[in-house]
Amino acid sequence: MLALPSAPAPEPRRQILVGTALVVAAAASLVGGMTALFLRFRSVTIDNGELWVPKDVKFSMVGANVMWITLLPLCIFAQWAIYAAKRGDRAHTGVALGLSGLMALAFINGQAFIYATTKMPVNLGTYSVMFYSLTGVVLLLAVVGLGFTVVTAFRYLGGRTSDREVVSAHALYWYAFAAVFTVVWFVVYVTK
Amino acid sequence: MTTIDTHATSAAPAGARLASVADWVTTTDHKKIGRLYLGASGISLLGAVVVAALLAFERTDAAGTALPVNSLTQLFSVYRFGLTYMVMLPLMIGAALCVVPLQLGARSLAFPRMAATGFWAWFIGSVLAIVAIAANGGPNGGNARFVDLFTLASALALVGLLASAVSLATSILTTRAPGMNMRRVPWFSWSVLVMCVTILVALPVVIGTLLYLYVAHKYPSLSDLNGNRAIGEWAGFGFTQPTTILFAIPVFGVLAETVATSTHARLKPRGAIFAAIGLIGTAMYGAAVQAPVVIRAGFSSLTGNEKVSDLLPFAIVHVLPLLGAFLALALTAQGLKRKPTVNAPLVFALFAALLAVLGAAASALGNIGDAGLAGTTFEEGTWLALVYAAVLAGMGAVAFWGPKLWGRSMPLKATLPLGLLAFAGAALASVPMMIAGFADQPGGVFPAVEQGVPGAVLFDYSGPSALWNFLSLGGHVLVLLSALAFIALALRSFSKGDQVGDDPWDGQTLEWGTTSPAPEHNFAAIHVVQSPEPLLDLKPSNRSDA
Lengths: 192, 546
Known about the structure:
Chain A is mainly alpha-helical. Helices cover 76% and strands 1% of the residues of chain A.
């Protein structure tokens, strides 16, 4: 048997943060690919002189804009959680994570509001299929993010206050989500 | 010291069998998760190659009466989905899960539960996809409910593979032994990292398209995405080149590992080989654009701007991966000048790399419009070369690292001829399909079936049209025989074969520094690494380049 020099176990190298970054990259690729196909179908339809958004379909732009604006405080609260966690301020970390979760809930509520007020059947045509698929995936990512917030809050408030990395990973997820949704918001709701 | 004695084994009491099953189902040991992948993809390989042989047999009969016409589209779907996502990619991921943490000197995998969940998601998704195809679902299927099931199940299988890929990539980035910077990462681990990162970009695009197709089919409307044929049309890029080139990247990692150990020397130039393997990853852009990246037919008549707009993406998606594959093979093969000890894993890996380079070159050629190969069996031949490259590399990996997993080795005299047989079969299965493509034999789901004509072969060719199909059939049969023999030999050798020492290949990297088989937590102590070949540093007396 060969003798290799040994050492104490190294400090963890931001495993949760790196894992989150990789998952976020995959999620961005998922939404990016779907958005690209959405744009491709839109371009072909418009080039054929047809309507892309069916005539009777009207969106609540207020709802869409509120969803987008919701993400700004969400990111700020997620960053606040990091700031407080670094200082060992458990109360403020809890408040920041709670507010992050509240904003995530507001985002989900905004999407549900749009679905409810648009009243567009899924089988209306290519547009409706793509609209529900794309926004549905974004909604799913928001639900996953909300779950991440809850898990982070329970871990931190449950006493693992030295485990700050998960708070940073949580913030990274929401930053990336905000960037991804900004693209979807611009393509689906602004330029339609 | 790295010694942990785990050689002593005893038969489990009969009452412990259920606990043993539960242990395998809920395991978080990377070696067990990897072996689950290897076992499942090995069984899938046998099934998929049988289907491949049946379809090749159908092609040899111009009247096309060998198989029921109605089952051809289902068999073709099993063949395509099976070999790509039930054999090729899981085989590479399985080998990586077994080996990579050991190579990194890590005591466990990062997010092992995620990797295990990934396996079960892939397994359940794959089984459901095959059930759906068998029940007349899948691409071109006639049963709407099972078409829906196929799209969701295949998306689930891909999500599972991605979960395991995230676990692997995170391990390589975060759990390396002290002193092992990224330039010191072992060859195989580097190639796995490149594969994992690139499929994290490419496969979500396939999943997104499958979700669109599911919704469009579940809620039928006048949509271009609706219909059973839309699956092949819109998600087909996930089952062909250049996406499949990404799954073959670890082939070059296996080659570099086997060349280095068989020559007992440091493989150089390290940076250039790393860069070459990384260059293959540019094929991921092909999946990202969701459409074939081609040089249009009539290239000479295009304007200057049109030529540039064709050539630039073509260079990124096809030429750079080919260049990377060629350089990785050429630079690694330079090491063979040092008179290697010929062993079975080296033979498997060398042939696998040759097939992968052939596949990358054919992928580039097939997308040049003026070559006139679009829609022919040339694409299928290219795909087969890449799939069988991964299969050969998987066999080589099992023969090479098997002793570290099971503590026993496969006999060289019996294994080495299987490498030659498998390569002959792979070359025979793929190259004649490429040649038939030049003779305009139609590819894809047999067009004759789609046109309502009984018969799988529908092409006008003055040459021996049946010859290429016969050769391809022979190739599939050879691959099947060699795979069967390899699996039987591996099962026998790893359960009753000769026990081996901890370092049977005179290895260079950390996995050979622990006991064979490796214990649950891999290493008794964490090791400090001072070079890419830490074990070689300790035995300089017989090294010409030490």
